[in-house]
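Lecture 7 notes: from sequence to structure.

We start with a single chain of 123 residues. Read the sequence below before looking at the structure.
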Amino acid sequence: MTTEHKQPQDRRKKGANVLEETAARFEDIEGHELLKPFTQVKGSDQLRLMSQLQKLGIPDAESTEVDVNSLDLDKVADLVDWVAERFAVDVAAFEDFTTGKGGFERALTLATSYAGALGESEA
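Now the structure, written as tokens:
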């Protein structure tokens, strides 16, 4: 009889780590090209995006864990639509990318990573 060892990812609650990719460079995240280059985003829009994430209780992009059960999913859906309308280079392409299985996770990862990268200084 062999004993199967659980891996750390086996112990995580489902949906508790949807922002795992946000620790990566934004340019390395799948779908990054669907959002406007940072040079085209006004400071006021950057602040609005970060404000929307804070209102939802989504931590900054440095954090990697969000308890999906604690989020108001209607408001998260509105945020995803708002990001598509405000920041997508091609809204239809963004919607295609965030449609289907895992679409919510891709959309949330993109939005939070984008906000985090916009908030970084170029020191």
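The two ends are 57 Å apart (CA to CA). Keep this in mind for problem set 3.
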